[in-house]
């Protein structure tokens, strides 16, 4: 990092073009500090960058840099209570008790997926799925009368992602006997949409895979 700062400083002092930093410096000091979206675009630069960014070592470096010096919030759900803990490099740990926005015990809430502070959760008594932001106490029930948005613990998989239009979406894969039903919920439109996915028959199984 000192070498990188020295190169940038000398270039700015002399009003000249930046010197060649070299691939090692770019891979170890610049790319790991980029936001996730920029890292995704960097994969398309060349095969060498794709190989580096796809490695486990790079993923660990990127995670360390993203967490370093930033304020982190940890949600803790117990049998009867729910807390948010704030941690950081120069921050004393703080705990704040929060009230759930749904009428169930904390122990009856299953966290299915998380992304950028948003949680996709399931209520144990009804199997309804909700999008919940614990920090601002906001909650949206994404289940509907067409049986969309209901979670089955032994056969379903749920994930959160952001599409190319920056819309937060919930991906719900429902596996039955030799069938796969894949739905995507849009936070922007508040609607579910069936999508085509893994149409080959040998993917259709109700047996959970272990990775």
Q: What do these coordinates show?
A:
- The protein is α+β, with helices and mostly antiparallel strands.
- It contains five helices and eleven strands; from the N terminus they run H-H-H-H-H-E-E-E-E-E-E-E-E-E-E-E.
- It has helices at 2-14, 23-30, 36-42, 47-53, 56-67; strands at 72-77, 82-88, 91-97, 109-115, 118-123, 129-133, 138-141, 156-162, 168-176, 179-186, 191-194.
- Strands 4-5-6-7 form a four-stranded antiparallel sheet, with no helix packed on it. Strands 8-9-10-11 form a four-stranded antiparallel sheet, with no helix packed on it.
- A hairpin with a 2-residue loop joins strand 2 (82-88) and strand 3 (91-97).
- The radius of gyration is 22 Å and the shape is globular.
- The two termini are 36 Å apart.
- The model is unreliable at 1-13 (pLDDT under 50).
Structural class: alpha+beta
The portion of residues forming beta strands comes to 25-35%
User: Helicity range of the residues?
Assistant: 10-25%
Low-confidence stretches: 1-13
Mean pLDDT value: 78
- CA radius of gyration is 22 Å
Number of alpha- plus pi-helical segments: 5
Secondary-structure element order, N to C: HHHHHEEEEEEEEEEE
Widest sheet, order of strands: 4-5-6-7
Net shape: globular
Our measurement of the CA-to-CA distance between the termini, rounded to an integer number of angstroms, reads: 36 Å
DSSP summary, beta strand count: 11
Biggest sheet layout: 4 strands, antiparallel
């Amino acid at each position: 990092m000192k070498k990188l700062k020295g190169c940038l400083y000398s270039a700015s002092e002399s009003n000249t073009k930046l010197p060649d930093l070299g691939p090692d410096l770019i891979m170890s000091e610049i790319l790991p500090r980029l936001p996730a979206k920029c890292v995704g675009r960097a994969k398309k630069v060349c095969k060498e960058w794709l190989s580096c960014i796809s490695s486990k070592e790079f993923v660990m470096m990127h995670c360390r840099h993203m967490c370093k010096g930033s304020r982190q919030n940890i949600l803790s759900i117990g049998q009867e209570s729910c807390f948010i803990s704030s941690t950081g490099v120069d921050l004393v740990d703080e705990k704040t008790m929060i009230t759930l926005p749904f009428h169930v015990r904390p122990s009856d809430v299953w966290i299915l997926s998380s992304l950028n502070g948003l949680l996709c959760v399931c209520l144990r008594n009804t199997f309804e799925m909700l999008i919940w932001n614990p920090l601002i106490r906001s909650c949206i029930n994404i289940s509907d009368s067409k049986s969309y948005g209901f979670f089955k613990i032994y056969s379903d998989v749920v994930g959160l992602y952001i599409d190319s239009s920056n819309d937060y979406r919930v991906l719900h894969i429902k596996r039955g006997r030799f069938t796969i039903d894949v739905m995507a919920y849009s936070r922007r439109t508040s609607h579910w949409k069936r999508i085509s996915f893994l149409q080959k028959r040998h993917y259709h199984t109700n047996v959970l895979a272990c990775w």
